Amino acid sequence: MHDQDSVYGQVFIQEPVLLELINTQAFQRLNQILQHGITGFLKITPPITRFQHSVGVMLLSQKLNAPLKEQIAALLHDISHTAFSHVIDHVFREPTGQSYHERMKEQYLQQSDIPPILAKYGYNWHEFVHEEAYPILEQPAPALCTDRLDYFFRDGMALGLLTAAEVSQAISHLTVQDNQICVDDISTAQWLGYTYMRADEQCWSNRQAIGLYELMAQLIQTGLQLSAICEADVWLTDQKLWDKLSNSPETDIQRQLAQLRRPVRFVEEKINPWREVTPKIRTLNPKVWINGKGVWLTDLDAAFAHDLAVYKQRRQGVLSLAIAH
Length: 325
Known about the structure:
two-stranded antiparallel sheet; 3-stranded antiparallel sheet; globular; 17 helices; 49% helix; Hypothetical protein af1432; mainly alpha
């Protein structure tokens, strides 16, 4: 399979198991699930799909010489993402902080058309439920992993925060040592750390995105309460779930849809907030491979350690939102 990837350029996928998995109905569904949820659907952020990201994580894993089993895990890591992606985490809030798609991954995989393909090539689908079993694919934040790096590269390029040349240069300095992704020079680690902070502030945890996620979550909750949709519908595509809500005659649903369809602005309001949300702050603290071991950038660069701490302090806490009128 030949393809032109927005991050990695011309690519060629030839492993039969990967090709068959990509062609499953479950994986093809990701073509219609936008990574940025409602902001992507409303064309506020670039229309990056879970399909593109999942293939991208697999491609980056290949570039780092991950074993085939880990490439499969990379391809399937987001298979259970629901319509509107992380909006659903605002609908079904987990006290543990676990994402809804992670909690439901085993159930979704079992019922999909993926297990027979895996069995054909000698794999048990249970082996791909828990991503933490694959250290190149997934690491606790703020460490480097292919999942975190691909969405950073992909989103960052689409948002104009980084160039293809910068991404290519960064990838050339990645190295896998002791089953962990490290960087072989400090300047690349610094670039990754600082640019990732910019992406977080401008895209992933900005006030406007959080407000729209809350509005869309409210709409889905209303749809569930009024039986316009059921929980199984969250595994439809973005457009199909939106259409199902749009076809409801319920006044509350139509009012909330109208609110989302027109420009809306959110402001901070401490006195009488509409919503109080604790944003997920994303940061990177790359390890630099030096003298035969991986050392956190914060232990090598006091200025970065200070800037990272200041950023986290500034962004942490509860965000009190109101809708501007």
